[in-house]
Amino acid sequence: MDRLLTLYFALPHDRTLGIFTKALNRIAAKILKKVLDRIIPDYFSRTQHLYPTGLNTEYRNKKVVVSLTSFPARINDVWIVVECLFRQSYKADKILLWLDEDRFVMSILPDKLKNQISRGLEIRFVKDLKSHTKYYYALSEFKDALVITFDDDCYYPKDVVRNLIEINEKYPNSISSNRVHKIKFKDNKILPYEKWHHNFTPHKYENSYFLLTGVSGVLYPCNVYDKNLFNSNIFCEKCLFADDIWLTINAFHQEIKIATNCKYNKDMISISNSSKQRLLDFNSKKNGNDQQLRSVLDYFNLGNLEKFRQSNKNHE
């Protein structure tokens, strides 16, 4: 798997040769998805004995906590994501899966998922906060750790955690994201989400106008956010289906930068049929991202966008 994913991420970035490279990446992603869906679940099942634990066993000054969530439509496949995280070249000290306490109990979970508990997976049942669940509880509880979040529907290369650690070592006071989008402006207004520079390849790797993309993996330094982030009443009202926007605007409001590099700035490869039930339709195709962005900007009184606009001008 890792050799195939390495080849995929080594392809030219979307805008290197215009529409040609964008089309090349989309075709490669579709082919790779079919190949991985066919071979990886069986391969992971057959080789689990080679990975008796998926966690770090050596001392660290600062613990690394990996956090994710899932829901019923994906629960049968989330073990594949956990397996990807178990097999990282830089292992986490803890891997947490947060599940809705109203829809799940341990007895109904798939055996492949429950079997991972003995190898390091920790499953907790909590109040469902939609996509915010994957960061909310981990950042609330593990304030002195590096918290890394992932989605529940992608094949992750073995170095995604290591890459985030390396970004964090270079930019320790910033949020580290394996992939970002660039927020774009015109006439002092943020352009619609679909017109932003997706999978952006920056020349400067740390900035304020990046949108972190949680699907590819994001690392949060210790105690990076203030109490605004954890106001669940507000984000449930303003931004329930766009945690990336809520996290990004909170960071901007606190003058926290987002750092990245160019290693994984492509769409991740989704697992099986998991992509059929995604927030993409609402957030992108139905302008949900734009609606929620405006709502959060208004909440933080950032409606005039002057700071955003100036940041964008300074770093074109």
Structural write-up:
The chain is an alpha/beta fold. It has a single domain (2-314), classed as Spore Coat Polysaccharide Biosynthesis Protein SpsA, Chain A (Alpha-Beta Complex). It contains 11 helices and 14 strands. It has helices at 2-10, 19-47, 78-86, 111-114, 133-141, 160-170, 232-238, 243-253, 280-285, 288-299, 306-314, and strands at residues 64-69, 94-100, 121-126, 146-149, 154-155, 175-177, 180-182, 185-186, 189-190, 206-207, 210-212, 218-220, 258-259, 269-270. The strands form 4 sheets. An 8-stranded mixed beta sheet has the order 3-2-1-4-12-6-13-10, with helices on both faces. The model has no long low-confidence stretch (mean pLDDT 90).
Indicate the overall shape. globular
- H/E element string? HHEHEHEHEEHEEEEEEEHHEEHHH
Number of helices: 11
Main sheet attributes: strand count, strand direction, barrel closure: 8 strands, mixed
Number of strands: 14
CATH class, named Alpha Beta
Radius of gyration: 19 Å
On the 0 to 100 scale, the average pLDDT is 90
Estimate the strand proportion: 5-15%
Poorly predicted residue ranges: none
Structural class of the secondary elements? alpha/beta
Helix percentage range? 25-40%
**Strand line-up across the major sheet:** 3-2-1-4-12-6-13-10
Cα distance spanning the termini:
36 Å
**CATH fold name, please?**
Spore Coat Polysaccharide Biosynthesis Protein SpsA, Chain A
Query: What count of domains describes the coordinates?
Result: 1
In the CATH hierarchy, what is the architecture at level 2? Alpha-Beta Complex
Identify the CATH homologous superfamily: Spore Coat Polysaccharide Biosynthesis Protein SpsA, Chain A
